[in-house]
Design a protein that fits this description.
The complex is a heterodimer.
Chain A (H helix, E strand, L loop, with lengths): L8 H7 L31 H13 L2 H11 L1 H18 L1 H4 L20 E4 L2 E13 L6 E12 L1 E11 L3 E9 L21 H37 L1 H15 L3 H10 L7 H32 L2 H8 L4 H38 L10 H6 L4 H6 L7 H22 L5
Antiparallel strand pairs in A: 1-2, 2-3, 4-5
Helix pairs in contact in A: 3-14, 4-6, 4-14, 6-7, 6-9, 6-11, 8-9, 8-11, 9-11, 10-11, 11-14
Chain B lengths: L1 H27 L5 H11 L6 H11 L5 H13 L5 E2 L4 E2 H5 L2 H29 L4 H15 L2 H15 L19 H10 L1 H27 L2 H8 L4 H7 L1 H5 L1 H25 L4 H10 L3 H29 L1 H4 L5
Antiparallel strand pairs in B: 1-2
Classes of the chains: A mainly alpha, B mainly alpha.
Chain lengths: 415, 330
């Protein structure tokens, strides 16, 4: 924090692990990744074991050290599992959904979530009650009454709508659903929206869109960030100054109005895929600055290292110095910074789509789903539509913890 | 110090210029112009606009000129303090924006003030009572604040307010003051409505600032001069508040720089959810209608005010931190 030489006080702040600065009081971990499974070294270890542990540490590769350190960060481990589950969900979207995302049923509009009854007379047999929908003559709102006599069994691995798994293999099995249902016997786990579309299934498809747009946006931002940050940090001088000023300018502009302007410029007749890529480009156009900053910082500090000088004296070419000497030693930092950039991308897409300027129906994303819950009237009538916010929040928190753990681990010799 | 100031000023001017170009280009990007959407609107409602009429309109608004000329025309007007016509409203842009711009700034500044107000004591507490339940609670709330986008927070709070407290939390004014001219009573009404939007907008920044404050203060507290002060019997409160807190306070000024764009940005979308009378809803409408002068002006003015705010925070930093002040004298 003490960087009096930095004329731009902001820079010092921005380079701090901002979201959640490390506990400076945490014990140095580089010497204590533990005897075996990365558990903290017990207090009364005898000398021999201590030496063995030390030896393991001194011969361990950097990635091994990182892994040991990362494992000690419980929350980060849990978060990683959650993130992994979500991305598994991206692969198995159609399997997890039980209704085609755009199938609508006017008879089932704004249906509240259906409760699953797990046991039937003591036997495990999940079912939901059949529903009769009627329009309230006064409020004109549809009212649904469950009928306990009509039990609709919920089965696992049921055949349902046809799809192509990974876009390749034709399949029709779904994790759960109702089999051979008549129209009035259906399952709506999280209820339906105004058009009577199943929220659970739509949420599955929305996750696919939003999570991949985060990855795609970060990939693009990474290319820009590494390229410009690398050039800036390695060459220094005038190029560095120009790139740094550009970054500063970009960062001092409120992003949402800018995004709104760019997104509003997308032609209305573009296909879903075109808009998807355009939005990815738009959010990464501004998201690269943080990554460029990290890369530049690493380049600046590594440039002074002995091993870089040694490589230079040995006559290595510049690309070789960068690619085989410098990049491996800051790759871990880039991975951590990238992980932390993904949630920002997801939020950007969600915000834009929420405003109606990002992805537009028939595309389905978290933002598009949340758009239906935009005003108090909608929330008052159908509060379950707010459920779409839950996966967004969970994923963002998980990514933040994961990135936090990665960042701590990226520097296994640090404190 | 002068060098530093000049540097910051040049950067600020550059930023303003970049924003003006960006604003203009963005507005120009969509195919067609306002007249095209006007014609579409008219024919949808049964009216018709003849070719000549359309041409005349285009000429009147200068839409037939090359882009560079249009930009220069616009900039000329901006410098003179006129922002052109809001095509859709058929009124000068400045009139349409009216109070909304100031209200946007009021909300944003309130959010930052609240951020400071909350982050300072909580940050100090977290550092002084490290690993206490209160510290953990602050950390936890901080994580939530960082992770949940402000508009979602607004949605959730709005629902909770409606469901459990039976009140609407939107708006910046009570009904009777919404269209009333400014008066003390109206300002008081505004002050009563401000805390919630300010809290929603400021939570993420507060979380960050608490972490920074905590980390900085922890670093300071371990320094020998603190121990010296304790050894000499200085009261604990004074030991902490007099020097370490002052040093750790540095980021408070510098955070405006990156907090302000963030908060202004957030205010746009939160305003839509909470129906605050800021420029947010206006900008969205203008963009949808391709009203280039209005949208461009809003983006430009938001950027401008943000840059001014950032510059002020630089001055503040200069005032607080002698290390920066002394730099030019070395």
């Amino acid at each position: 924090m003490d960087r009096p030489a930095d004329p731009d006080g902001r820079q010092a702040i921005a380079e701090l692990p901002v979201p959640h600065a490390r506990h400076p009081a945490e014990p140095a971990t580089a010497v204590a990744p533990g005897s075996d499974a990365g558990e903290p070294v017990a207090a009364g270890l005898d000398l021999a074991v201590g030496e063995v542990a030390e030896e393991r540490i001194s011969v361990a590769s950097q990635w091994q050290l990182m892994w040991w350190r990362f494992r000690r960060h419980r929350l980060a481990m849990v978060a990683t599992v959650i993130v992994a589950c979500f991305y598994l969900g991206v692969i198995f979207t159609e399997f997890l959904a039980y209704a085609p995302p755009s199938a609508s049923e006017a008879q089932r509009s704004l249906l509240p979530p259906q409760r699953i009854h797990w046991f039937d007379e003591g036997r495990f047999s999940p079912h939901v009650y059949g529903l009769t929908g009627q329009r309230d003559p006064l409020t004109l709102k549809r009212v649904y009454t469950p009928d306990p006599a009509r039990k609709v069994p919920v089965r696992f691995f049921v055949p349902g709508f046809e799809y192509r798994f990974l876009g390749l293999f034709p399949a029709s099995r779904h994790l759960f659903g109702v089999e051979d249902a008549r129209p009035e016997e259906t399952l709506f786990l999280l209820g339906t929206d105004e058009q009577g579309r199943d929220l659970w299934s739509r949420l599955m498809f929305a996750s696919r869109t939003s999570l991949t747009i985060g990855l795609a946006g970060v990939a693009l931002a990474l290319v820009l960030g590494v390229l410009l940050g690398g050039v800036s940090g390695y060459y220094g001088g005038a190029i560095d100054t120009v790139i740094q000023r550009v970054i500063e300018i970009l960062r001092s502009i409120p992003t949402i109005p800018l995004w709104m302007g760019l997104a509003a410029a997308l032609p209305n007749d573009w296909s879903v895929i075109q808009v998807y890529f355009a939005i990815t480009v738009i959010i990464s156009l501004i998201g690269w600055t943080e990554l460029a900053r990290v890369v530049r910082g690493r380049f600046l500090s590594l440039r002074e290292e002995e091993f870089v000088m040694a490589a230079e004296l040995a006559g290595c070419s510049r690309p070789r110095i960068i690619l085989s000497h410098m990049v491996p030693s800051f790759l871990s930092h880039i991975i951590a910074a990238t992980t932390l950039a993904i949630p920002a991308m997801i939020i950007s897409e969600t915000s834009l789509s929420f405003l109606g300027l990002g992805l537009r129906p028939p595309a389905i994303s978290w933002g598009v789903l949340l758009q239906q819950a935009q005003n108090i009237q909608a929330l008052a009538i159908s509060p379950w539509l707010l459920m779409s916010a839950v996966p967004v929040i969970v994923v963002i928190i998980a990514f933040n913890f994961m990135g936090d753990g990665l960042r701590d681990a990226a520097d296994p010799y640090g404190h | 110090m002068v060098t530093y100031l000049v540097q910051r000023l040049i950067l600020a001017l550059l930023t303003v210029w970049a924003i003006s170009v960006l604003a203009f280009v963005i507005i120009q990007l969509p195919p067609g112009d306002y007249i095209t959407s006007y014609i579409a609107q008219m024919s949808a409602s049964g009216g018709a606009v003849s070719e000549q009429e359309a041409e005349a309109l285009r000429q009147e608004y200068g839409l037939d000129q090359p882009m560079l000329v249009q930009y220069l025309r616009w900039m000329k007007q901006v410098v003179q303090g006129r922002f052109g016509m809001a095509l859709e409203w058929r009124r000068p842009v400045s009139e349409v924006i009216g109070d909304r711009l100031w209200l946007t700034m009021v909300v944003s500044i309130a959010a930052i003030l609240l951020t400071w107000l909350l982050a300072l004591p909580i940050g100090i507490y977290s550092a002084v009572r490290q690993y206490s339940p209160g510290d953990y609670l602050a950390t936890f709330v901080g994580f939530i604040g960082l992770a949940v986008p402000s508009f979602m927070l607004a949605l959730v709070l709005m629902y909770l307010g409606f469901r459990y407290f039976d009140m609407s939390i939107g708006g910046l004014f009570s009904d009777e003051f919404a269209d009333a001219p400014w008066s003390l009573a109206k300002v008081w009404d505004l002050a009563k409505h401000l805390p919630l939007p300010a809290l929603i907008l400021g939570l993420a920044g507060t979380a960050q600032l608490i972490r920074i404050m905590r980390a900085n203060l922890l670093d300071e507290l371990r320094k020998p001069y603190v121990m010296t002060a304790r050894a000499r019997g200085v009261p604990e409160r004074r030991v902490i508040l007099k020097y370490p807190v002052r040093v750790a306070l540095n980021p408070f000024a510098s955070t405006i720089g990156y907090l302000l764009p963030y908060v202004v940005s957030g205010s746009i979308i939160v305003s839509l959810v909470l129906s605050l009378p800021t420029v947010g809803p206006l900008l969205l409408k203008a963009l949808v209608a391709q009203d280039m002068f209005l949208a461009g002006t809003i983006v430009l003015l938001l950027g401008l005010l943000t840059v001014v705010g950032t510059f002020l925070s630089d001055l503040l930093l200069l005032w607080i931190d002698p290390r920066i002040r002394m730099e030019g004298k070395r």
